Amino acid sequence: MKRRFIIAGLVLLLPLAAGWWAADQLAHPPRRALQDFHREFLADPAAHGVLLKNFSCTDGTPVLVCEPDPRGALGKRGEIIREQLTKKNLTLQPPAQIVGNLVLVHGRRGRKEDYLLIAERFCAAGFRCILPDLPAHGDHPATTAYYGVMEAPLPALVLHEAAAKFGFDPKPAGIMGLSMGGAVSVRSAVAGDAPWRAAVLVSTFDTLDQVVRHQAAGLAGSWFGPVLHGITGEVYEWQTEMKTTAANSIALVPRLKCPTLIAHGTDDHVIPIECGRRLFAALPANIEKRWVEIPGADHDNVLITDFPIYAEMAEWLLRHVPN
Fold first, then answer.
1. Rounded CA gap, 318 and 320, in Å?
2. CB 290 within 8 Å of CB 319
3. Whole-angstrom Cα distance, residue 99 to residue 121?
4. Domain 32-207+247-320, classified CATH 3.40.50.1820, yes or no
């Protein structure tokens, strides 16, 4: 009898412990330290054809500003993307000329330095790139992630404060977000005073709760998955005073007014491609939009397959952001 009670207790405790762990991972993602490739880039940005500046916003957000090398030098990734864009019949400005600004918003467990190699490509296409750390990520002093609900003002804030700090015009501007960063970008873009002329959303969710449900089923199966999903949601709400259902991009995208490209990997196991398809289907009919599937891409390698996704994104942004 005693053994049965112990087993019953473990059966009850295991889902609770797993749900607590999952909720804590959502609310307080483990921060990634700087990687060797970050340090290599930061030590010699000129080798990548860019000039780097850094500062902190008035709210404490750490920011990197990445500009094309004023001498017109290009890194190897810059050379490749300019060749790809030329094959798309785009007329590019000289390498040092800036045609617009981009705010690049990283995903969960990311940091601004993860976007340096992305910025190298976009800078070669003619953009100034602004890379912030999101709250609870990188070197940001805040400790909790809200998946866009609380972070929505941040992209416009870093754009305008970077412009004031370094003396450039914040217009024209576009925004690009990956995964959680896509959800932040959606909320930023539907704001009444949104400065974005175009948006690119990569591997982002329709609703956070749907992703939690999917992940719980994958971890605990069809029987215990719903239990784990429910516990995770309750604990996350207790930790953050926000329901996972509040991070609901699909309810917001019908209000988007700027041209929007949505890209998703066909083999994404974190945020299934169906989430991206539903998000795209909810876009308003009166804006220019494009859906891009990245063959064979999972969530973590969606930007590093053989598919020329950078050329697709850069072409979209070049056609819609500059004056």
1. 6
2. no
3. 14
4. yes
Regions of the chain short of the pLDDT cut 70: 1-15, 323
Written as six digits, the tokens of 47 are 């080798």
* DSSP 8-state assignment for residue 122: H
Q: Count CB-CB contacts under 10 A for residue 147.
A: 28
How many other C-beta atoms can be found within 10 angstroms of the C-beta atom of residue 93?
13
* E strand or H helix at 135: none
% of the chain residues with pLDDT over 70:
95
- Comparing C-alpha atoms, which of 241, 236, 181 is closest to residue 213? 236
Tally: H helices and E strands in the chain: 9, 8
| Paired strand residues for 292 | 263
Indicate the burial class of 36 (C-beta count within 10 angstroms; 0-12, 13-18, 19 or more): exposed
Cα–Cα distance measured from residue 29 to residue 294, given in angstroms and rounded to the nearest whole number: 26
Distance CA 31, CA 136 (A): 7
Instruction: Choose among 232, 208, 60, 44: nearest CA to 132.
Output: 60
Structure tokens at 255: 């209000």
- Of 74, 181, 201, 65, the C-alpha closest to 125 is 74
pLDDT tens profile 161-185: 999 999 999 999 999 999 999 999 9
The 10s digit of each residue's pLDDT in 202-246 is: 999 999 999 999 999 988 888 788 989 999 999 999 999 999 999
Q: What is the pTM of this model?
A: 0.95
Q: In the chain, what are the domain boundaries? A: 1-30+208-241, 32-207+247-320
| Distance between CA atoms of residues 118 and 287, nearest Å | 26
